[in-house]
Amino acid sequence: MDRSELGRLIKEARLAKKMTQSEVVGDFITRNMLSQIESGTAIPSIKTLEYLSDKLDISIQMLSKTQQQSLEQQAKASEAPEFGLLKEVKRLFASGEYEKAAAQIKPHLLPAFPFYDEFCALYTRSQLALAETCRTTDPMLAVSHAKEAVVYADKGVYAASECREKAGALLRELSASLQ
User: Fold this and answer.
1) Of 81, 85, 96, 117, which residue has the fewest beta carbons closer than 10 angstroms?
2) Distance between CA atoms of 35 and 49, rounded to whole angstroms?
């Protein structure tokens, strides 16, 4: 069972008890966190599982088993070759090697590719950094990088409006200087 299954199980138990999310969370966790757990976007800690188990009268063994399976799936994902690529791209980005990072990411910018969201975010930030780096030495190249940043800034769950806005401002500035 994966984390979405765990979330479904918790939500069904809550609804069976006719409880709202606010009634379940009390002062232990936030309602937003419970919502994320129920939707499968967050994985609860063991302490949270124990709390939810007690509050919803669900066997902790059932929840723990579900949680363990989810952690095992995450561990398998971290051994995937795509995870190695993500780690390498993050290293390149962190060390300021934006061109290399962007070049490694570009072939993998497909929604079906694992880590698509992370790659879009890193690609956007790499393109924006490249645009700013060459804005005075090669304005046309800077325009190309800024356009790429604009295209990918709104993609994935890590969409970054501030990157889109920075790239747009840079494009306007470069456009004015090239006329």
Assistant:
1) 81
2) 14
